[in-house]
Amino acid sequence: MKENWDGTNFIIINVYGILPAFIHKVSQLPTSGCGYSFGPAILIIDKSWNDKGLLIHELTHVKQWYRSFGRSSNKLSTDMNYRIKTEIEALSNQIKLNFIKKKNLTLMSST
């Protein structure tokens, strides 16, 4: 994965090693927030294009979609408990990445 995607408006990342996630840089989203996923597609707003935590969050939703064989889209709109469970998983992955980055920065600055 590239560290800086400036100048790029579209990339493909494989999840589970073989399944594609299509990531698009956009100027606005259909909802509030900085990222939005539907099926194997992810939209990330311009200002958050290099936010790896957001990318991990949205890639988690793509993985959830693949794990459910595409059924998670319907379930998200009808089952609030399922929606909460999927957001907790995505936020957990995002927090883990941010914690690791912060821990690494602390270790590097203390040496």
Molecular structure report:
With 111 residues, the chain is α+β, with helices and mostly antiparallel strands. The protein has one domain. The protein has 3 helices and 4 strands. The chain has helices at residues 52-67, 72-78, 80-110, and strands at 10-15, 19-26, 35-38, 41-45. A hairpin with a 2-residue loop joins strand 3 (35-38) and strand 4 (41-45).
Key phrases:
single chain; 111 residues; alpha+beta; 4-stranded mixed beta sheet; 3 helices; 4 strands; 49% helix
Short description:
This protein has helices spanning 52-67, 72-78, 80-110; strands at residues 10-15, 19-26, 35-38, 41-45. The chain is an alpha+beta fold. The chain has one domain.
Fold blueprint:
Elements: E1 10-15, E2 19-26, E3 35-38, E4 41-45, H1 52-67, H2 72-78, H3 80-110
Helix pairs in contact: 1-3
How many individual β-strands? 4
- The DSSP helix count reads 3
The residue ranges in which pLDDT falls below 50 over 5 or more consecutive positions are 106-111
Residues in helix, %:
40-55%
Distance from first to last alpha carbon:
28 Å
Range of strand content: 15-25%
Strand order of the largest sheet: 1-2-4-3
> Residue-averaged pLDDT, rounded?
85
